[in-house]
Amino acid sequence: MFVDREHAASQLAEALAAYRGKRPLLLGIPRGGVPMARLIADSLGGELDVVLVRKLGAPWSPELAIGAVDESGVVSLDALADDLPAAYVDEERERQLAVIRRRRASYSALQPAIPVSGRLVIVVDDGLATGATMLAALQALRRKHPARLVCAVPVAPPDTLQRVQAVADEVLCLQVTADFSAVGQFYRHFDEVNDAMVLAALRSPPPDPPR
Asked: What are the recorded GO MF terms, alphabetically (predicted)?
């Protein structure tokens, strides 16, 4: 059980200590992953940015992912989508792409996207359930040719982790458990992260180096 996202991020930063001083690029998945990535970036002496992906929700349960879409519009679908009408999937894709575009416009007002090519990239989220958004993020980033692609999360079920391990160069997960219903069950406090909090994390300057 993690106290909150800050507690989970501090534990991830300790587990990622081997990358301290190697100028990693921390990419948070909005919204919950971004404040965590800010703390880890500051701990490791890295840079912070976002990777924009959105899950595609099932028509009977919007929180259940049938797949995900990345910023370029590429869709990856889970087996759950096999029996759904193509028209629904297309409409859901457009709905989520509209959210991605709004967020990019908002975040780009603070800083342009940092190039990924040739970088040590660490992708952070507050946990994985189906892993749809993380998989979409990793696949989108792989096409941009990072030097090394790392997934860092506090908690995930083993089957999801296995799928992610096939895409990333390294996966760091603090707690792997099959007793899994939702990410929030592993946090004592799992308050919603809003856009203002994401913008604050992106706006926050890194700490001064020790003298």
From this structure: glycosyltransferase activity
State which residues form the domain around 107. 5-203
One pLDDT digit (tens) per residue for the chain, 211 residues: 899 999 999 999 999 999 999 999 999 999 999 999 999 999 999 999 999 999 999 999 998 899 999 999 999 998 889 999 999 999 999 999 999 999 999 998 888 899 999 999 999 999 999 999 999 999 999 999 999 999 999 999 999 999 999 999 999 999 999 999 999 999 999 999 999 999 999 997 665 554 4
Q: What is the CA radius of gyration of the chain?
A: 16
The answer to pTM > 0.85 is yes
Choose among 47, 29, 16: nearest CA to 135: 29
d(CA 56, CA 75): 9
CB 66 within 8 A of CB 57: yes
Q: Is 72 a member of any domain?
A: yes
Query: What is the spatial distance between Cα 34 and Cα 79, in angstroms, rounded to a whole number?
Result: 29
* Nearest-5° Cα angle at 126, 120 to 131: 80
User: Tokens for 173?
Assistant: 């997960």
How many CB atoms neighbour CB 180 within 10 A?
Answer: 19
Q: What is the CATH number of the domain that holds 91?
A: 3.40.50.2020
In a domain, 45, yes or no: yes
Domain tally for the chain?
Answer: 1
Specify whether the CB–CB gap between 52 and 74 falls below 8 A.
Answer: no
Q: Is 41 part of a structural domain of the chain?
A: yes
